[in-house]
From TrEMBL:
It comes from Clostridium punense. The modification 4-aspartylphosphate is found at residue 54. This is Stage 0 sporulation protein A homolog. Residues 130-229 form the OmpR/PhoB-type domain. Keywords: DNA-binding, Phosphoprotein, Transcription, Transcription regulation. Residues 130-229 bind DNA. SMART domains: REC, Trans_reg_C. It comes from the Bacteria. It holds the Pfam family Trans_reg_C. May play the central regulatory role in sporulation. It may be an element of the effector pathway responsible for the activation of sporulation genes in response to nutritional stress. Spo0A may act in concert with spo0H (a sigma factor) to control the expression of some genes that are critical to the sporulation process. Residues 5-121 form the Response regulatory domain.
Length: 235
């Protein structure tokens, strides 16, 4: 754990000190910034393992920082937890749509914050041994584009496989329908988000034990989907 570094971005000094103290107490290295522009530069230069990003920042706010990080190929997969004093559903949805991995609202308990940090870092340090991945009774070979269930081959179309792969490799992160549509089908499908829903339905029928009550591919209402596997916050 000691090799994990976290960038804490907040313009309230007492909040930064509180978070820094407790993260270091749990064995994490901590970098800090008090504005969005510096946060983006530090993220580029120092490549932290996770960013705790306040929404309300002077100049470049947290949403803009998140947007710029997701646009930059060198750091686009960097995990981000949004922190804000606002509790409105709209802010949560907007943060998730821009690519935040999680969202915590002030005031928060230190225990909850640390648990969420640990959960995000667990997700993003998944090892894909031999270019494969296993969950439940499903085994995936990304190189061979092969999926097996209890040893039996599961026939997926190319798009179904690509959809499953991008969800797994962004484990725990909410993927919007528009993002999935663009990454897998391309610009000519812009606006046809029903295409994503149809493929998700077919994919669930092939890999879920009960596709009507899916465990692995979860719907985030009004936003999109995420791959869920061992997503609890408890140790």
């Amino acid at each position: 754990m000691a090799d994990k570094r976290i960038l804490v971005v907040d313009d309230e000094e007492h909040i930064v000190e509180l978070i820094k103290f407790n993260l270091e107490k749990n064995g994490y290295g901590v970098i800090t910034a008090d504005n969005g522009r510096d946060a983006f530069i530090i993220a580029k230069e120092q490549q932290p393992d996770l960013i705790l990003l306040d929404l309300m920042l002077p100049g470049m706010d947290g949403l803009d920082v998140c947007k710029e990080i997701r646009r930059d190929s060198a750091i686009s997969t960097m995990p981000i937890i949004m922190i804000t004093a606002k509790g409105e559903e709209l802010d949560k949805i907007l943060g998730l749509e821009l690519g935040a991995d999680d969202y915590i609202t002030k005031p928060f308990s230190v225990r909850e914050l640390i648990a969420r940090v640990k959960a995000i870092l667990r997700r993003t340090t998944v090892k894909y041994e031999d270019n494969g991945f296993k969950f439940g009774e499903i085994t995936i070979d990304f190189e061979k584009h092969e999926v097996r269930r209890d040893g039996e081959k599961v026939d997926l179309t190319l798009k179904e496989f690509e959809l499953l792969e991008i969800l797994i490799k962004n484990k725990g992160r909410v993927m919007t329908r528009d993002f999935l549509l663009d990454k897998i089908w391309g610009y000519e499908y812009v606006g046809e988000t029903r295409t994503v829903d149809v493929h998700v339905r077919h994919l669930r029928q092939k890999i879920e034990k009960d596709d009507k009550n899916p465990v692995y591919i979860q719907t985030i209402r009004g936003i999109g989907y995420k791959f869920n596997y061992g997503e609890d916050y408890e140790e």
